[in-house]
Design a protein that fits this description.
By secondary structure, the chain is an all-alpha fold. It has one domain. Helix 3 packs parallel to helix 5. The termini are far apart.
């Protein structure tokens, strides 16, 4: 299992590093990492995490399609959204944390509200990453720190360490994308 978890973590690191640099090849690594994490999550019975990874597979396919059809570089499609355009999706995610947290707790999730928040905001951050929105990295920083804590509580130390590293890489991604804006 450690080899599977480590392989998933390496693919995920490559995804974030390449995405931060605006390289389209990030998406195949993201998809591969998500598939490996689905297998890992099912084996260790982290079913909600497997569900999130399933979303990442489809989001990766969308991101690959979007980046391929809009260019292989940032220059012509890179955007920053004003807060007034982002408050509604962020507020919607925040409001949905409670009902999804309740649902996750009914399914036996020990960290249901934290899992709900990280799931919903990960979905939003992935969507914004696929659309090359600068602020996706700010959401990722918060999500990655929360996920590092969550996986530490689950004793998944490799994955917890991965998310701490991803939070640092998200800072790098933000700086890279902001420079090219």
């Amino acid at each position: 299992m450690k080899l599977l978890e480590t392989s998933a973590a390496v693919c995920t690191l490559l995804y974030v590093w390449l995405a931060a640099r605006g390289i389209i090849w990030c998406w195949p690594f993201g998809i591969a990492g998500a598939v490996l994490y689905i297998i890992f999550d099912v084996h260790v019975k982290y079913y909600q995490d497997a569900l999130v990874q399933t979303y990442y597979v489809f989001a990766g396919i969308y991101g690959l399609y979007y980046w391929k059809t809009h260019s292989n570089t940032f220059a012509d499609v890179y955007v920053s959204r004003p807060l007034k355009e982002m408050w509604l999706p962020v507020a919607l995610c925040a409001v949905l944390v409670l009902p999804f947290g309740y649902l996750f707790s009914a399914l036996g999730n020990a960290y249901s509200y934290l899992d709900s928040a990280t799931t919903l905001f990960s979905f939003l951050a992935t969507w914004y990453t696929a659309r090359k929105v600068l602020q996706s990295w700010l959401i990722w920083i918060l999500v990655d720190v929360a996920l590092a804590i969550q996986f530490l509580l689950k004793s998944a130390y490799i994955t917890s360490s991965l998310y701490l590293l991803l939070a640092c890489m998200a800072l790098y991604g933000y700086a890279q994308w902001k420079q090219k804006l």
